[in-house]
Automatic annotation (TrEMBL):
It comes from Skeletonema marinoi. Pfam families: Glyco_transf_8. The lineage of its organism: Eukaryota, Sar, Stramenopiles, Ochrophyta, Bacillariophyta. This is Hexosyltransferase. One of its GO terms (molecular function) is glycosyltransferase activity.
Length: 389
C-alpha cells in the first residue's frame, strides 16, 4: 500500500530543511573564513601603515642635530651661546631625539663645563633622549687651515689664513668630521646670535620633504649663520668651492675671513645643489632691516628663527645694554624682534620646568647625556661620578 501523500510531503520537507541547513552552515563557515582572511589582510595592512609611520616618526630614524662653533671665551659671546642653546632645547621636536654638537677651540671648550654646571643642565628631564657633544677642535686647526687655504688658492694665490683670529669662522665646514653620519642625514648649524622661535620639527619637515638631495639648505639672503647641511655630502662643499665663482660671492664685500663666502660661491655656481628655505627661517637683521619689510609680523607671519647678527662692532651680546638702542632691534621692535629677548631673560630654572612639562604621561623623562672629546677622536660618555665636575 502506498504511503500517504502527507507523509511523503513531510519527508520531502525535512530533506529540504536539512539541505537548506547544510547550505546555510556552509555559507556561515565560508563567511567566517572570509572574515578571518579580511581581518588578517586589514591587520597586516594596518601593521604595514604603522611600521611606515614609525619610520617617519621614530626619533631614531632622523633625529634633529644642531651644531655650534665657539671660539674664545669673551663673556658676551658665551652669553649669546647660552641663550641660543636654551632656545634649541626648548624648541626640541616632540617625536624625535635631539643632539647638540659644539665645536670649540681650547678657550671655549674649557668654559663649557662651567656653563653646564651653572645652568644645571644635568638635572633636566626631557621628553625624548637629548645629547650634548663638546669637541675641542684645537688639535685639528692645522688640518683645517690647510684645507681652507687649498680651497682659496685657485682663486687667490697669495691667500693665507690667520688662525689666531678667524679659525672659528670656518668650523661649520668640518662638522661632518665629528658627527656620526649613521645617526642622521642633516645637521643645522646656527650662530650664537640666533634664537629659535618655532619647533624644530617644522624645519626638519621642510628639509626632508625636498625631493633633491642637495648639499645644504639656507635662506634667500645666503647667510651661513643658519644653514642645514647634508652630512653625507659635506666634503663636496670644499671640492665644489675650488671650481666656484668667488668674485660674485657677497657682492663688493668679499670676505675671505669666514666660510660664508665659500657657501655663497657654491650657491652661485651650483644653484641646483642648494635649497632655499622659506623667509620665516631666514630672519636676519642685516638683510631685512629696511622699512619696506615693516610691519614684520604681517610680512613674515611664519617666523621660525631670529638672527641678530651679534653686538655690532663689539663682542658684547646682542641683547646687552652696552650696544645702545640706535640699532637694537629688540628695543626698537618690541612686539616682533623683541620676543627674541624671551630666551635671554628666561631663568634656566624656569626653562628646565618648561622642558619637564613636555614629558609624556607616565614617563620619567630622559636625563641629558654629555660627551666630551678632543680632536677628531670618538667622544667618551661622561659617567655620573665624573659628569660636569
Amino acid at each position: 500500500m502506498a504511503p500517504p501523500r502527507r507523509h511523503l510531503h513531510n519527508k520531502k520537507h525535512r530533506h529540504h530543511i536539512i539541505f537548506a541547513s547544510i547550505i546555510i552552515l556552509l555559507l556561515i563557515l565560508v563567511a567566517a573564513q572570509l572574515k578571518q582572511e579580511l581581518f588578517v589582510i586589514n591587520h597586516s595592512h594596518q601593521k604595514a601603515v604603522e611600521i611606515e609611520a614609525n619610520k617617519v616618526d621614530d626619533p631614531n630614524q632622523n633625529p634633529v642635530q644642531v651644531a655650534f662653533g665657539l671660539s674664545g671665551n669673551h663673556p658676551g659671546f658665551l652669553s649669546e651661546f647660552e641663550v641660543a642653546l636654551k632656545s634649541v632645547l626648548l624648541s626640541a621636536p616632540l617625536e624625535r631625539n635631539l643632539s647638540v654638537h659644539i665645536l670649540a677651540d681650547q678657550e671655549a671648550f674649557v668654559s663649557l663645563k662651567g656653563i653646564f654646571n651653572r645652568t644645571e643642565l644635568s638635572t633636566w628631564q626631557t621628553r625624548n633622549p637629548t645629547e650634548i657633544h663638546a669637541y675641542d677642535v684645537t688639535p685639528d686647526h692645522p688640518q683645517m687651515k690647510h684645507e681652507i687655504e687649498d680651497v682659496h688658492k685657485p682663486h687667490f694665490p697669495n691667500y693665507v689664513l690667520d688662525v689666531r683670529h678667524t679659525m672659528g669662522a670656518f668650523y661649520r665646514l668640518f662638522v661632518d668630521r665629528y658627527v656620526s653620519k649613521k645617526a642622521a642625514k642633516h645637521i643645522l648649524y646656527m650662530d650664537t646670535d640666533v634664537v629659535v622661535m618655532a619647533n624644530l620639527e617644522a624645519l626638519w619637515k621642510l628639509v626632508e620633504h625636498q625631493e633633491r638631495n642637495v648639499l645644504f639648505h639656507w635662506g634667500k639672503t645666503m647667510c651661513s649663520g643658519f644653514v642645514v647641511m647634508n652630512l653625507q655630502r659635506m666634503k663636496e662643499i670644499l671640492t665644489l668651492a675650488k671650481r666656484s665663482n668667488f668674485t660674485e660671492a657677497d657682492g663688493s664685500k668679499l670676505d675671505l675671513n669666514s666660510d660664508q663666502t665659500i657657501y655663497q660661491a657654491v650657491n652661485i655656481s651650483y644653484p641646483n645643489e642648494v635649497n632655499v628655505l622659506p623667509p620665516g627661517w631666514d630672519m636676519t637683521v642685516t638683510n631685512i632691516w629696511q622699512s619696506n619689510n615693516h610691519p614684520y609680523d604681517k610680512n613674515f607671519p611664519n617666523v621660525g628663527m631670529l638672527h641678530f647678527n651679534g653686538g655690532g662692532s663689539t663682542q658684547e651680546a646682542y641683547f646687552g645694554d652696552e650696544n645702545g638702542t640706535e640699532h637694537n632691534f629688540i628695543t626698537n621692535f618690541k612686539d616682533t624682534w623683541g620676543n627674541g629677548k624671551f630666551y635671554a631673560t628666561l631663568p634656566w630654572e624656569w626653562a628646565r620646568y618648561q622642558a619637564m612639562s613636555l614629558v609624556r604621561p607616565g614617563s620619567k623623562g630622559h636625563s641629558i647625556q654629555f660627551y666630551f672629546s678632543k680632536g677628531m677622536q670618538g667622544a667618551v660618555n661622561v659617567s655620573e661620578s665624573e659628569r660636569l665636575v
